[in-house]
Design brief:
Blueprint (H helix, E strand, L loop, with lengths): L6 E11 L23 H4 L10 H18 L13 H7 L7 H8 L2 H6 L8 E3 L3 E2 L6 E2 L2 E3 L15 E3 L2 E2 L3 E8 L3 H15 L16 E12 L8 E3 L7 H7 L6 E3 L20 E6 L2 E6 L2 H10 L1 H20 L3
Antiparallel strand pairs: 1-8, 1-9, 2-8, 3-8, 4-7, 5-6, 9-13, 10-11, 12-13
């Protein structure tokens, strides 16, 4: 399904450290561990010393918590490092010429459907979180002193220095393409858990590092189907034909009625507008929503929980039906 764009969600996020944040560099020229990758001048044209959070780190943290939430919901999640992972099972059956539809519907687990694996491209991507120009994070030099477990005193010979960042703000963007609504609901749960302090980013998490808050600065939805009603959010199951829906195992009711106050004509007093609002652009190519406030995006993501529960219920019903089938 990657050869055709059916829908797309773009979320602009601001990540604000609520304490020290240490994302270690992959290499160091000295004994001092660098806090965050500095080699950003080539891809981004920024200063070599500008700290940032790599998109791969964000994706890894989000996938890890996605897997935990999925297992809590009873959804199948593979261990990427085991012999029974989705990638290894798919690569082992390459001679059988498994179609993309069968790979998605029968082989991939919940996490691999969203984030991908060695055998299948993901539908989720995250850009590097770059420091805000208006509110850049500040560096701090800190040291850790291990305690001798027998003497109860510090071992000064093993003092290690760290240079985490505190305060400030990082800005990033995550994108979901050709998503089912339960994909988006799970990403919303992960983001809210990060914002609530249930998920930490970077290293030294046992020492309290890595707590951040997440601001939902903006969101755009695009649904590539003409003449769609302008009061709904549509997953890929409601945008493809019956044949593709059956082959990929999409849900036919993969849509949600949008119950948000729509942005009206400009008011003389902008402060009089509701904080939850969105713009609608409908044309020959499809339908586009532009959500302009944190409250609107958070409310929409919470509303999608219904679609996640429907998917979990359907998955469990399918499991029971398979168990009852005489073998």
């Amino acid at each position: 399904m990657h050869s055709r764009l059916c829908n797309r969600a773009v979320l602009d996020l601001s990540i604000k450290p609520q304490g020290p944040l240490l994302v270690r560099a992959g290499h160091s020229a000295s004994e001092v561990s660098l806090p965050i990758e500095h080699n950003v001048q080539t891809p981004h044209g920024a200063s070599p010393s500008a700290p940032y959070i790599p998109g791969s780190s964000l994706k890894g943290v989000m996938r890890n918590h996605f897997e935990r939430v999925a297992r809590s919901c009873g959804l199948p999640v593979c261990d990427p490092f085991s012999a029974s992972s989705c990638a290894r099972r798919a690569l082992a059956n390459r001679s059988a010429q498994v179609s993309d539809a069968k790979l998605y519907s029968e082989v991939l687990c919940a996490a691999c459907k969203v984030f991908g694996c060695e055998a299948a491209a993901g539908r989720f991507s995250a850009s590097d979180a770059m420091p805000s120009e208006d509110n850049p994070p500040k560096r701090q030099l800190r040291a850790t002193l291990p305690v001798d477990r027998f003497l109860g005193s510090g071992r000064s010979a093993t003092v290690k220095d760290f240079e985490p960042v505190v305060g400030g703000e990082f800005r990033t963007r995550i994108v979901l393409e050709n998503f089912e609504l339960w994909h988006l609901a799970m990403i919303g749960i992960v983001l809210m858990d990060v914002d609530d302090g249930r998920v930490q980013i970077g290293g030294l998490r046992s020492k309290g590092y890595g707590l951040v808050s997440v601001g939902l600065d903006g969101c755009e939805f695009f649904f590539a189907k003409p003449d769609l009603p302008t009061n709904g959010v549509y997953g890929i199951g409601s945008l493809v034909g019956d044949r593709q829906r059956r082959e990929f195992g999409y849900m036919s009711d993969d849509w949600l009625l949008l119950r948000l106050p729509q942005m009206s004509e400009p008011e003389p007093d902008a402060s009089a507008r509701p904080s939850v609002q969105y713009d609608v652009v409908s044309d020959l190519f499809g339908l586009k929503y532009v959500l302009s406030s944190h409250e609107a995006i958070k409310l929409l993501l919470s509303m999608l929980t219904k679609n996640l529960l429907d998917y979990v219920s359907r998955h469990r019903t399918g499991e029971r039906a398979d168990d009852e089938t005489p073998g």
